[in-house]
C-alpha cells in the first residue's frame, strides 16, 4: 500500500524550491499540485485518503512501510534503468544546489524507492525485497523492452516466484509474488 502521509511536507518543499527560483505560489496551490502528482483530483480527496491510511498501535505508534535508499553514481543511468526499464515514475527530486548530488523518490504501484547520489546515504550492492502480484506479466513487460544490460528471469522458490534485477550500481531489487499457504 502506498503512503501519502508526507504530502504536506512535499508541498512545503515544493513551495520553497519554487520560491528559491523566484516563482511564488500559495501553500494551497502547492497542496493541489502534490495531490495531482499522486493522481488525485484535488487536495481534499488526497487528504481524506491520508486520514484513512494512518494506523496506530494503542493510539501512539504508527509504523509505515520501509523505503529503501539505493546508491547511484549517475543520474542518467538511474533514470534509464528505473524509469525507462522498470517503469517507475519520479515523484519528486531534490538537490541542495544545481551542482550537488541528486536525491529522488521513484514509485510504481505500491512500492517506493529513494535513489541517492550522496556518498553517505547508502552502500552500492544493497537488496530491496519487493512484494507484488503479476510477476509473470511484469517479466514479459521488462523482457519486451530488450534492455541492453538486463534480461531477468523468473525463478520458482519455496515461497513463490522471484525475479531479481540488478541496477547499474549493483543494487538488487528482488520482486516476489508470494504463495499463500
Keywords summarizing the entry:
globular; four-stranded mixed beta sheet; 5 helices; alpha/beta
In short:
The chain is of the alpha/beta class. It has 2 domains: 7-53, no CATH class; 69-178, 2,3-Dihydroxybiphenyl 1,2-Dioxygenase, domain 1 (Roll). It is built from 5 helices and 8 strands, in the order αααβαββββαβββ.
Descriptive overview:
This protein has 181 residues and is of the alpha/beta class. It has 2 domains: 7-53, no CATH class; 69-178, Roll (2,3-Dihydroxybiphenyl 1,2-Dioxygenase, domain 1). It has 5 helices and 8 strands; from the N terminus they run H-H-H-E-H-E-E-E-E-H-E-E-E. Strands 1-4-3-2 form a 4-stranded mixed sheet, with helices on one face. This is Bleomycin resistance protein. Residues 64-178 form the VOC domain. Belongs to the bleomycin resistance protein family. It comes from Terrihabitans soli.
CATH class of the largest domain: Alpha Beta
The tally of domains stands at 2
CATH 2nd-level architecture of the largest domain:
Roll
Order of helical and strand elements: HHHEHEEEEHEEE
What does the largest sheet look like? 4 strands, mixed
Kindly, what is the distance between the CA atoms of the first and last residues, rounded to a whole number of angstroms?
Answer: 21 Å
Strand content: 15-25%
GO biological process, one term: response to antibiotic
Keywords: Antibiotic resistance
InterPro entries: Bleomycin-R, Glyas_Bleomycin-R_OHBP_Dase, Glyoxalase_8, VOC_core
Protein name: Bleomycin resistance protein
